[in-house]
Amino acid sequence: MQFLHNSVNLCFYNKNIRNTTTMTKNIDWSNLGFSYIKTDYRFISHWKDGQWDQGKLTKDDTLHIHESSTALHYGQQCFEGLKAYRCKDGSINLFRPDENAKRMQRSCQRLLMPTIPTEMFIKACKDVIKANEKWLAPYGTGATLYLRPMVIGVGENIGVRTAPEFIFSIFCCPVGSYFKGGLTPSNFLVLPEYDRAAPYGTGATKVGGNYAASLIPGKIAKERNFSDCIYLDPTTHTKIEEVGAANFFGITKDNKFITPKSPSILPSITKYSLLHLAKERLNMEAIEGEVYIDKLDEFSEAGACGTAAVISPIGGIQYKENFHIFYSETEVGPITKRLYDELTGIQFGDIEAPEGWIIKVD
Ligand SMILES: Cc1ncc(COP(=O)(O)O)c(C=O)c1O
User: Fold this and answer.
1) Prediction pTM value
2) Which ligand 1 atom lies nearest to the CA of residue 210?
3) How far, in Å, CA of 259 to CA of 309, rounded?
4) Which of 10-24, 111-125, 206-220, 304-318 is the least confident region?
């Protein structure tokens, strides 16, 4: 498999597509939620006969794929989620996109799909951002441009086998908070009768099947006025794994940062960034370990973390008959707030980032 670098395409795009001055009107940037908004351009590349083509930006927001595509029948697809951030000086930051590229490579390998080279992944992200720059919110509004890369198996096929062809695409849309309320704590529900992933299944990869499995428990949680579900480990159902589409972290009463470790958790880039920041910048002990659902008393604060969720404080967790409140149901705890300020300060370019974390889009 080979990546053909496309300098011709890049020149075309620079001259004709980039629109850096016009901001999109009619968007209430400070009150955006997490919904699809159509932007102008998306990137698309096709894999055939053993290689990805050079790819291009297109205005077409639909995919025309074969009815027997493995992505439709056998869930042969994966995706990523990362954000572009507008800095105070008007420049644009990407936060650790190489980690998204690597995770997508692992997802592709797990589902027997061709991988996207890191360089191709990052260049495609930059092209999409630059072509849609007017959709990137001004600094200070809290909104960002969310990028959704995906790889899907397409082409004629009927048996359970890998597809003959693939599509790699990236679209983007402006987003605000994922969980309603942003830094206002939200409550979560444990439904031990539902798992999102199996012990040696696909939980550690970002594939659609994991999310399909979470739709019913997520719906039940929302109907009961919780923000989402907390998933327990699928083997013993005694330990916290995921918080909806985010990882869990807790701050113990003796000031340790703890986040669950398990082969069926999605390795969150935000979580690994927080482990680093807690240790290096907040001088805390930072641990990946076990978080038992019946030992929540050890924690003074808890939160959900992820690209979309950023850091969302957890007010309380309902488990069976018990509703456990952490710091407060209405206010963010002090350590969670410090981590939030450090992380978002780095992402928006206000605080110096550890080496290699920020890639400028220029
Ligand atoms: C199931 C799940 N866990 C955790 C995360 C957080 O991962 P990241 O911090 O890399 O966005 C996500 C979002 O990508 C997710 O979908």
Assistant:
1) 0.93
2) 1
3) 16
4) 10-24
